[in-house]
Design goal:
With 324 residues, the chain is mostly beta strands. It is built from 3 helices and 17 strands. It starts with 38 loop residues before the first strand and ends with a helix.
């Protein structure tokens, strides 16, 4: 399993030309780090969900385009301060926009606020808490009253997430990281992954990409497994730098498979994907999985979000009962 606006944005997908990162006018890329520093360019999931990234002349992500593949999309334009810390972001949609401000303590984002540009109404007020290792352990949005708690394995990978709606435990997400690889989002420079996936994985902090995931919904305190990847059937391929280029999973609960692909740029001599392209299988379109459905509910944040969450839970419970 893999894991912002009130209305569908109607944004156009970024063209390949627009996604080319900036250069110095002499045909040379400007970026922070070594000449072989890979940058994550795109992520495509078989249920239609995809992300595309653009970088500024320091190699920091300044545009993050998220598309759910069904007409729902979000286009973030991101800025940094003189110390290359997250400063602000503007997300365009329809005739309106959302303005986000980041508050940093040292190297960590400790608070994020978001307001509608048209009327100044609050969209989010999120507080991030970290442990002594610098790992995010809690995320609390006082506007939506949604709260997440994160746990880690010995390697520092986020292997458990508990999400609460108010005081009610809504779901638990368990992950394993048995396959040696490099997490693609470590190649996303500048942006905390929690910025656009408020209540899901602390993926930006993981060393590896997960080899399986178990998605648990609660019905009056009773745990119901809504989706469960079989680790024995997981396939993960890597390219230059051991970054994941392709992954395939099989969900034993829903008896369905899904796959995903990552593409990179600026990895040194040649294209980062040349080696991987010969191995990588094409992503085949599948139905929207449980994690994508839930993330979409949080991202869209309609006025009836609570009802949508309840409907999502009923759908999971119904599938569980039919499978018994």
């Amino acid at each position: 399993l893999i894991l912002l606006a009130l209305i569908f944005t109607g944004c156009q997908k970024i063209s390949d030309q627009e996604l080319v990162s900036g250069n110095d006018g002499k045909g040379q890329e400007n970026f922070r780090g070594n000449d072989n520093t890979c940058r994550l360019r795109s992520f495509v999931q078989s249920d239609g969900f995809n992300e595309n990234f653009h970088y500024n002349n320091k190699g920091l992500a300044d545009r993050w385009f998220i598309d759910y593949g069904d007409g729902t999309s979000f286009d973030y334009h991101i800025t940094y301060d003189r110390k290359d810390k997250l400063k602000s972001a503007r997300m365009l949609f329809g005739g309106d926009a959302l303005n986000f401000t980041f508050y940093n303590t040292g190297n960590r984002t400790t608070r994020l606020t978001g307001f509608f540009e048209s009327n100044g109404e609050p969209y989010a007020d999120i507080y991030y808490t970290y442990n002594r290792k610098g790992q995010m352990i809690s995320l609390d949005d006082i506007v939506a009253d949604i709260h997440s708690r994160f746990s880690y394995d010995r390697m520092g990978n986020n292997n458990k997430i508990d999400m609460y709606f108010g005081t009610e435990l809504f779901y638990t997400y368990l992950l394993t990281f048995d396959n040696p690889n490099k997490n693609p989002y470590l190649a996303l420079n500048g942006v905390d992954y929690g910025f656009t996936t408020f209540f899901f994985l602390a993926t930006k902090f993981d060393k590896r990409w997960n080899s399986s995931g178990t998605f648990i919904i609660y019905d009056n305190g009773a745990a119901i497994v809504a989706a469960d990847d079989d680790p024995a059937q997981t396939q993960i391929q890597t390219g230059i730098g051991n970054y994941v280029t392709y992954a395939s999973y099989y969900d034993v609960v829903n008896e369905s498979s899904y796959d995903l692909r990552f593409e990179y740029e600026n990895c040194g001599n040649g294209n980062c994907d040349d080696k991987a392209a010969k191995q990588t299988q094409p992503v085949k379109r599948t139905a929207m999985n449980a994690n994508t459905k839930l993330r979409k509910i949080f991202d869209v944040r309609s006025e009836n979000m609570k009802q949508q969450l309840m409907d999502f839970k009923k759908e999971c419970i119904s599938k569980h009962r039919k499978s018994r």
